[in-house]
Design a protein that fits this description.
mainly beta, SH3 type barrels, six-stranded antiparallel beta sheet, two-stranded antiparallel sheet, 1 helix, globular, binds zinc ion
């Protein structure tokens, strides 16, 4: 799935105050989406951009890779599980490669 726009909801504002952010453009400035064949480029300790969504917001946040469960790739591509810790609130989450963008080196 390709996400072009992500709705950003700021707590304290009504729905009318939501902002639409062109994530594709914003993220391209500073990061590189990964192809399934490139999953080996992600390593424990890397800082990545990770898509995250909860009731307050949906956006790409800086996160550190703390653990990787490598799986055999199948017809759908990468099946690896990446455990990331968000810089913002130190929450940990298990995500798929499709939710991760690499920062330029
Ligand atoms: Zn993989």
């Amino acid at each position: 799935m390709v996400v072009n726009e992500v709705r950003v909801r700021f707590s304290g504002f009504g729905n009318g105050e939501d902002e639409w952010v062109n994530v594709k453009r914003a993220v391209r400035e500073r990061s590189i989406p990964l192809e399934p064949s490139e999953c080996h480029r992600v390593k424990v300790g890397d800082i990545v951009l990770c898509y995250r969504e909860n009731e307050d917001h949906a956006l790409y946040s800086d996160a550190r890779v703390v653990e990787i469960e490598r799986k055999l790739h199948d017809i759908k591509g990468c099946r690896c599980i990446f455990v990331v810790r968000f810089n913002y609130d130190h929450a940990e989450e298990k995500v798929e490669l499709s939710r991760i963008c690499c920062r330029p080196t």
